[in-house]
Amino acid sequence: MTNRLSLETSPYLLQHAHNPVDWYPWGDEALALAREHDQPILLSIGYSACHWCHVMERESFEDAETARLMNRHFVNIKVDREERPDVDSIYMRAVQAMTGQGGWPLTAFLTPEGVPFYGGTYFPPAPRHGMPSFRQVLRAAADAYTSRRAEVTARGDHLTEILARGATEAQPASGHFDAPDGRLFVHAVSAAGRTFDPSNGGFGNAPKFPQPVFLDFLLRTGGPRSHGVSMATHTLSRMAAGGIRDHAGGGFHRYSVDARWLVPHFEKMLYDNALIARALTRAHLLGAEGMGPVAEETLDYVLEDLTSPEGAFYSARDADSEGEEGVFYLWTPSQIRSALEPDAARLVSRVYDISEAGNFEGRNILHLPHDLEAISRQEGIRPPELNSLLRESLNLLKARRSTRPEPLRDEKVITSWNGFTIRALAEAGPALGRADYTHAAERAAGFLLETVRRGDRLQRIFAAGRVHIDGFLEDYGSLGNACLSLYEATLDPRWLADADWIAATMVTRFWSDAEGIFYDAPVDEDGLLVRPRDIMDNATPSGNSLATELLARSAAITGNTEHAGLAETVLARERGMMERYPPAAGRLLSTAVMCETPRLEIALVGPFERVAGMHGRAHGDPHPNRVIVGGDPSDPAVARLPAMEGRADRVGEAFVCVGNTCQEPAASTGALDTALKQAQSVSAGG
């Protein structure tokens, strides 16, 4: 027996297609049915890699008696939060307002008009730890709707007012906005320092989240020894040593339940790995030891495990397999001994802390608790040889692990998450000398733009051969930024044209002139209680910050004054939020640093093959507001760029300028090195 979810493409929704619950996907049919029969709505939101979503399904949604209660009293709607971030945003905020907490699985009870009146997250099948059972919650919500309608209506009206007000709450009472400046950045670094864990890295106590968006901001706040950069590089180093990193297979898990980055929630998300890889690449450019290889390992994992046949990128790997969380990634000493030769097994067990007692439920998570140089000395093995032995052993463990039942892979392609990944690959390609990364980024972007660009808009989801759901602000902002990074990585003006189309379409569909803000949902979106707008970063950058960054970067390359003005408007408007909640404003802060730092402009004149060596050197510069422009000046799209004006006859040369000060043209990599060093002196003096 199946329900209506069997017609969907989302792996998460398909997981529930055989539940005895009469599930509907979010849409007009379910909402109209609720209004027609005056029935409340039970809205359940989750995602495929969510461990507790699976637990609640097994305990409740697969239970016949629980399903009978749900079907009798409610119109039941199941939503994949990754497909519909707009729906998730609205009702997550509502549940947080009602209960003080949020998370997934999210459970919300709505009137037929979609107004929330009760909610929570995970509910157990029987009362425990002070939580009511899910059946008790179902009966209470149904009774409230039928017996206490006035109370339900009043509560819903109050929540709707809160949700509507939230869209414009950044507006200061005076209506005056101050542009970001150096004081804001000092304040943000200082605020981070107050919660920084100097031993383990990261911020606050357990659980610990990677926060790569905020780390990227910290990496733009000074030189290698500055406080912000030091906090970021120490955090990345401790993460790379911890169990949150998959040492055998590459990539990072979602977050750590402890303060030491040892025990992760084992799901792997595409966006985490893309954003972490980008932060690692930037740390590498700043000279942080060991960051480049970890960035490559992370991106190699994405290319190997999360790449579709078309070249786009899948969404996630589940945490669970064989009915257990994390079992795919865990090891016992006997498993290590059976996979490796005795000497290698002994060495790996010492290096990665493999013991009979284990460090997670009697088994072992690979991690690096000891300094490898100290082990190298004690073992009498030179560091390069030790690294080679460990790599060979890890490859054997990975091969042995591949014979285990794998966690589910969520094979839907999400435009915004692909944008993060394309950008990470495009920036890492020239920075790490990996041309294959650039090619992978071009292939993915080409496929997406052919597939999800439909008429005058982008679509969000490609899955099972179908494209659907109009794109949200984050989809436009992320893919547009990816195209700009591809232009800088290839000097191919097609990517600049694509970025320009995306930016212009984004402004048309999401910008409100009347309010001077971006909304997350397009102007013609209907069926929502309110038009959502979330200005804060979460696990990914907010749509608002991505849009602002896209406009600022576009203006820096093309000279588009309209884009520059809109970016400045948003940055000034949201300064108060950046001051109050720096960790939730990492991408806006990074964009503000870019806009407030004198621009380092590197213009490379000529076809790519004529400037390839200098192009690679340009990408090695870590300046926080570096812009690389260039290409064949015989192409009109290149010739009209401001940085190429008057330089069409200087093919094979590079021009380096900081603000209004330019260095002597460079015709070789060595000369470009000299010009960049002189430009650094100008920046320091400014």
Description:
- There is one protein chain.
- This protein has 686 residues and is of the alpha+beta class.
- Strands 1-3-2-4-5 form a 5-stranded mixed β-sheet, sandwiched between helices.
- The longest helix is centred in the middle third of the chain and has 19 residues, at 383-401.
- It contains 27 helices and 22 strands.
- Helix content is 50%, strand content 11%.
Give me the number of helical elements.
27
- The strand count comes to 22
State the secondary-structure class. Answer: alpha+beta
Q: Which spans of ≥5 residues are poorly predicted at pLDDT below 50?
A: 170-174
Brief characterization of the structure:
The chain has 686 residues and is of the alpha+beta class. Helix content is 50%, strand content 11%.
Keyword list:
single chain, 27 helices, 50% helix, 11% strand, globular
Topology:
Layout: H1 11-15, E1 23-25, H2 28-37, E2 41-46, H3 51-61, H4 64-73, E3 75-80, H5 85-99, E4 106-110, E5 116-120, H6 134-147, H7 149-166, H8 182-195, H9 212-218, H10 227-241, E6 255-256, E7 264-265, E8 268-269, H11 270-285, H12 291-305, E9 316-317, E10 320-321, E11 324-325, H13 333-339, H14 342-351, H15 372-379, H16 383-401, E12 409-410, E13 413-414, H17 415-432, H18 435-451, E14 453-454, E15 457-463, E16 466-470, H19 473-490, H20 493-510, E17 511-512, E18 517-518, H21 543-558, H22 561-573, H23 575-580, H24 586-596, E19 600-605, H25 608-618, E20 626-631, H26 636-639, E21 654-658, E22 661-662, H27 669-685
Parallel strand pairs: 1-3, 2-3, 19-20
Antiparallel strand pairs: 2-4, 4-5, 6-7, 8-9, 9-12, 10-11, 13-15, 14-15, 15-16, 17-18, 19-21, 21-22
Helix pairs in contact: 4-6, 5-7, 9-10, 9-11, 9-24, 10-11, 11-12, 11-17, 12-17, 13-14, 14-16, 17-18, 17-19, 18-19, 19-20, 19-21, 20-21, 21-22, 21-24, 25-27
